[in-house]
Amino acid sequence: MVARNTERLATLKKEINSSENNIHYISCDVSDYNQCKATFDIAKEEFGTIDLAILNAGLGLNSQLSIPHIDTAHNTIGVNYFGIVNFGHILFPYFKKMGKGEFVGVSSMADVRGFEGSGIYCSSKAAVSVYLESARTEMRHYGVRVMTIKPGFVDTNMTKKNKHPMPFIMNAPKAAALMYKAINGKKNSYSFPWQTRLGSYLLSVIPDSFYDYLATKRGQVGQ
Ligand SMILES: NC(=O)c1ccc[n+]([C@@H]2O[C@H](COP(=O)([O-])OP(=O)(O)OC[C@H]3O[C@@H](n4cnc5c(N)ncnc54)[C@H](OP(=O)(O)O)[C@@H]3O)[C@@H](O)[C@H]2O)c1
Fold it and tell me: CA angle 218-159-55, nearest 5°?
């Protein structure tokens, strides 16, 4: 397990440790390439090989673009996009050499359109989704699986601050169980729940002018 807050990692380890689970945690800021490389080296040393990596770290800061937002942009792209690209840079050559490996990236259905108040977040997730898609097409030649997960709204610290409506919001344990099943099921991409997947699909196919009209009517939407 990798995150910055070691106290929370230690508590989580206590919660899930069992005789079958050999849990290690490493403090790492995923936006910092050197820390990612050090984390990879430690994990390889501890476990011998790395078969599967789930890249889930994310920042979901709101961003009114009429308010200065350069720090929000750098931090969000640093974590959401470069957090995945840093590990891609390290793991893809490693998996390619092994002729196997699984790389799972958590994006969002907020990648589908630019929602009001979430321009930085949406664009970071659009970048992640496209990066993962390219990686999937490239890495399949080497026996490496790249999977994209796109959750709808999940009740976590990230969404607690949201004041806008969050249709079909799901509790975190249920979302985690669905993601676990999809990863084990060897899917290449997984979006849930289906209602949000359908809504995202419709948003993706409507003309820009119609989206602009809907967005003006609706106001802030997306995480
Ligand atoms: N909740 C939703 O509705 C929703 C919807 C779609 C997609 N997602 C995506 O799902 C993923 C998880 O989000 P969440 O809802 O569980 O958010 P969360 O409760 O805020 O958790 C974010 C996690 O990312 C870690 N993190 C943040 N910055 C980091 C950094 N620089 N380096 C390493 N770890 C970092 C945090 O740990 P530390 O603070 O200890 O580092 C924390 O464990 C994100 O990629 C998010 O974009 C969430």
Answer: 115
Q: Is the predicted pLDDT of residue 15 greater than 70, yes or no?
A: yes
- Centre of ligand 1 to C-alpha 141, Å, is 31
pLDDT digit string, tens, across residues 55-79: 999 999 888 999 999 999 999 999 9
Say how far apart CA 166 and CA 159 lie, in whole Å: 9
Ligand 1 atom 44: residue of nearest CA: 58
pLDDT tens digits, one per residue of 140-187: 999 999 999 999 999 999 999 888 889 999 999 999 999 999 999 988
Ligand 1 environment, Cβ below 6 A: 3-5, 8, 28-31, 56-60, 79, 106, 108, 151, 153-154, 156-159, 223
**15-39: b or e for each residue (b if 16 or more CB lie within 10 Å)?**
eeeeeeeeeeebebbbbeeebbeeb
Residue ranges and CATH numbers for the domains of the chain are 50-218 (3.40.50.720)
